[in-house]
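Quality-control log, excerpt.
Job 1 of 2 completed; input and output follow.
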Amino acid sequence: MARFPLLAALLLVLLCGPARAAVPPPLLFGLNDAPLFQPDPGRALDLHAGVGATVQRLGVQWRTVQPSPGVWDWGFPDRAIGAAVDRGMDVIVVISTPPAWASKSSVVATCAVNPNAELCRRAPAPNHLDDLGRFAQEVALRYPALAAMEVWNEPNLGEFNWQPAAEPEYYAQVLRVINDAVDEVRPKLPVISGGIGPPTFPRPPGSMRVEDFLERMYRAGARGAMDGIGVHPYPQDDPPDDPLGSAARVMRSVREIRDAHDDPDLPLWVTETGYTTKGPFAVTPEQQAAWLSQTVERTLREPDVRAVVVHTLADRRSNDADGGYGLVSVDLSQFKPAYAAVAAAVRGVAAEREAARRAAQRAAARRRAARRRAARRRRAARRRCLARRRRAASVETRGGAPRVRRPRRRCRR
């Protein structure tokens, strides 16, 4: 059969019927950025829209919203999420950072003076997980325009975001609490795990490799407690087509662990990636433009990737790596080459998906029309059959008793 591929294809169509064109999911591309903190929030939002963003990744800290039990302050998230929605963007909301009253009592240097300090980011206390679940429910109900809820940011980097050290088993428990809570009030909202990314080298105390963290998450019961895996595959200074590069290794490892735990249909959400033009892994602005646009284009086309978020809109004033990931200058006045290149890549993928969507709609319309024609043919055939039955019906007399004779074959409906 392998020598006759056309014959094999025809037999497959005859046996299985024509394949249905899949309707592509909506394009989820955006930037990891907080426009309200930019020098000109209105221009920042315009730049999000101009690069083709359909989503915006925004953090909402629990301690900001509920500083005390029973006290709620939705001022900042209302403004931030409302501004994104006004520009036609949905939001990937990252919930994190419990208030002091709901945090673990872990000894952390950054929390010694002020337990609500910006750099104090302890894990939630086990006896306040119900409160955390209620907070997640309030967020889900308050903001209809959410594309997903991401549970923490880089929880494997314990020295930054889950102090004092990463706890994959406890994180899996937190993830399930939030997932179950959100399912009760908004079951169609995806709850995804916090984006995990490779730690710096040498690895700081309290941080874990992506592979180790995700493997232990799964062993602790994370399967079924999330609707997607958040991933931060930063490529450092590796080109996007390097199979041994940092980003490729992270994506490959995540897929291998996911599949090994019988979870192959779980999508990946790339909620941070990017190239920097500053620091030890700096690339040139021209390389950033070419490589980042290729990364965005290729990753959006991967069938198991649901979203791609680039870090970030604008450069920062620092000269370390974090200062050079932007697509525009610090003051938003000058475009780096990457801005136009990424915008072109996003437009290309969006056009492909729109063409696929229209093709799927046309195919669905043809199927509906075919079903209507088949139904009309069946009805006409039944009418003809019933007419034949009536004509064939006759009355005979046998021994003086009338008998009606009809065809044995019944008319199909």
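Job 2 of 2 completed; input and output follow.
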Amino acid sequence: MSKEKDIEKLTLLPDRYYIILTKVDEETFTLTAYDTTGSYKEGEMPCSAAIAQEGLLEIMDIDLSSVLKMGALRIKNRDFIPPEDNVIKVDFGVKQ
């Protein structure tokens, strides 16, 4: 595992489901999913957050082009989306 991935894992908070997209270039990205809850046991019914994470991963696998189209449409219509429903942008600066 890369040093960057090791650092990424150390910054995760407990009791969360993460999907992290990392830009490779203008056309490609990598996706990493983390479950820091420790509560999902094989054979048990997972919570809705775990199911949503799995569903998002599945839709990315089977229909990425539709996901990209919907994302582009959402960006185009961002002015009509309530601020609390938008992506929260964080600027860490150059050295972060």
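Post-run check on job 2. Residues 5 and 27 are 21 Å apart (CA to CA).
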